[in-house]
Prior knowledge:
It is a single chain. The chain is an alpha/beta fold and about 425 residues long. The chain folds into two domains: about 1-205 and about 380-415, Glycogen Phosphorylase B (Rossmann fold, 3-Layer(aba) Sandwich), CATH 3.40.50.2000; about 225-380, Rossmann fold (3-Layer(aba) Sandwich), CATH 3.40.50.2000. It has 16 helices and 13 strands. It has a seven-stranded parallel β-sheet, with helices on both faces. Strands 10-9-8-11-12-13 form a six-stranded parallel β-sheet, with helices on both faces. α10 links the parallel β9 (about 260-265) and β10.
Amino acid sequence: MRILFLTQIFPYPPICGGTIRSYNILRHLGKHHHVTLVSFVRENPTQEQLDTLSELCRNIVTIPIKRSMAANLKFAALSLFSGKPFIVARDYVPDMQETVDELLQTGRFDLVYVDHLQMAQYTAGWGRCPKILDEHNVEYKIIERIAKSEGLSPKGLFAQIEWRKLRRWELGTCGKFDMVFTVTDNDKQTFSTENPELQNLVCIPIGVDFSSFSQVELDPDARDIVSIGTMSWPPNIDSILYFANEIYPLVNTKVDGVRLIVAGSNPPDEIKLLSERDNSIEVTGFVEDIRTVASRAAVFIVPLRSGSGLRVKILNALSMGLPVVSTSVGCEGIGTEAGRHLLVADTPDDFAEAVIRILSNHKLRVELGQEGREFVLANYSWDSIYKRIDAALDSLVPDKQSSTQKITRRTFPPPSRIRAK
Length: 421
């Protein structure tokens, strides 16, 4: 099968939830099909990154996209006076549209795989072959929850307008695709409830690389509270500020020697300032191997108040056998049982109490870690997820069976097809 794979984030290296999902699905598709990858890039890919993906893709095309606060403010202002949501307008680049149009007209593809909602605008009106939309999140839910948590602040008022506009656009877009992948049954149910006419929804979860996230040995004397996540994502920023300001002081006054470790790439200044305000808080930035941080953890926290989809960082933490405390929003859709696989708390007092329980009880740490790991091993292997993907593709393109052709030889794409400016 010839597949055009469009993605908003360059899928290598797989260092956050979005790229982990994109890379592993791309890796599977590349074993059986001829894949042309078209991706936005924030900076030029390294030769190592291109070489790695060239083993999976017959052709690679990269289109630069720039992000800045000034540009975001411009698109936010424009979105107030248009029907197009902010995240869609922000990610429209004419060079990407020109490239996709050219490939669709000349490529003779059997399937178009659109990775992330923002990329759907580039295939509008195309109907000569089946299209799949991979919805990493219910995007409008993220903005709706931001609106609730921000209240009457300027950010909250903008989010009140934006989430309704995005909901209309997102639901309408899902209806234009032959198949829509969701990452959880919760997300699937949300779409079905909002638009009962959507009959094209298939749940394809995110998996875990168990070899990379093997079990760690829990230190009975550990006092580190650990958070790991991409710190440029607004829900992650909000969650750390919420924990540091409203929960951590409650813990710090009752447990001696406790520390908060915030690991993740691109922390903004407001997160970096936490360590200057309190020397028991460490903001590490990007960590090459998160196991070095995880091995010091007494408890792993996910204090999310907004977001959607599935938090792969919880799956990774459970896979390593770490005891987890999460909000309901943080662990929604995973299928864990509160009190058995992890602890769940939604108020500052309850969250602090759950963290203190784990810090004070090594036996509870071990029990939660073991139960959580066994749950993930049983439910989130990539092999089982790949079977779901194959079945979905076979139903959508029955004359191009997904498992009948295994591609074993790759050549680097010709330079004329790589646009890395």
